[in-house]
Design goal:
- With 241 residues, the protein is of the alpha/beta class.
- 20% of the residues lie in helices and 18% in strands.
- The strands form 4 sheets. A 6-stranded mixed beta sheet has the order 3-2-1-4-12-9, sandwiched between helices. Strands 5-8 form a two-stranded antiparallel ribbon. It has a two-stranded parallel sheet with strand order 6-10.
- α1 links the parallel β1 and β2.
- The chain starts with a strand and ends with a helix.
Length: 241
């Protein structure tokens, strides 16, 4: 059984280049591709290689959450997670319809990594590990944007059941950065490969290039009645806690 699922929510047309690229890339891989539509999705949406759920199709599902979720909201993505879980998923990957996947996006995900581990550091801006620019992720505490990254010490073997990947060129930054900083941004892969965040350390993560292993599925829920700009950020803090 295919137990890896990629979930996107979108109101784009079937000619969206990112959705087409994902559908093409996924065609020869053992990954199921779920697209969750919304009220503004095209009525005739059809894209080979994906399983599309229109609002009408969603309403036929047995999940009680379907009737409770607002329309025209990013939280419709919750339905995709539930479909994947019911279908036997062990791993759920998520991204958005404006993020082109690089070739290494399709690398096999593993939970255990030997990486720097940041613990008991309070707020840390993990972007500083991958860039010399004063850039920070959306949802980061502005009181700490000039805080230096602490020393993580020796590498440690870490189980990482939630994994956030970076996005080049137009990363997920907030409006303050967009008003004051420069884009595009290319993260420097030679500076670091990965890092883990542990106990009592905080850095928001988004839903644009994120992998969830089965034990974290209960933490996937996107809050449904807040700004769509904050839903994945609130989720990230709940999940880290």
């Amino acid at each position: 059984m295919n137990n890896i699922f990629l979930v996107v929510t979108s109101i784009a047309k079937q000619d969206n280049p990112v959705l087409k690229k994902i559908a093409t890339d996924i065609s020869n891989r053992n990954i199921s591709f779920i697209i969750v539509g919304d009220a503004k999705s095209p009525a005739d949406f059809s894209l080979a290689g994906c399983d599309f759920y229109s609002i009408e199709r969603q309403q036929m599902l047995e999940f009680s959450l379907v009737k409770q979720l607002p329309k025209n909201h990013y939280a419709r993505k919750n339905i995709g997670y539930l479909i994947a879980m019911k279908s036997g998923a062990n791993t759920i990957i998520e991204t958005d319809d404006d993020n082109f996947p690089y070739s290494d996006f399709w690398n096999t995900r593993v939970e255990n990594h030997t990486v720097p581990l940041y613990q008991n550091n309070g707020w840390i801006n993990i972007y500083k590990l991958f860039s010399d620019k004063n850039i920070w992720p959306r949802g980061f505490s502005l009181n700490h944007i000039r805080k230096n990254l602490p020393d993580a010490g020796a590498l440690q073997s870490c189980k990482c059941p939630i994994q956030q990947g970076l996005a080049n060129e137009n990363p997920d930054v907030d409006a303050i950065y967009r008003l004051t900083g420069a884009l595009p941004v290319l993260f420097d892969e030679t500076k670091a490969a990965a890092a883990a965040i542990g106990k009592s350390t905080w850095c928001p993560f988004n839903s644009q290039n994120t992998t969830w292993f089965k034990e974290t599925f209960p933490l996937l829920y996107l809050p449904s009645f807040c700004s769509f700009r904050m839903t994945d950020i609130w989720r990230s803090f709940v999940a880290q806690r």
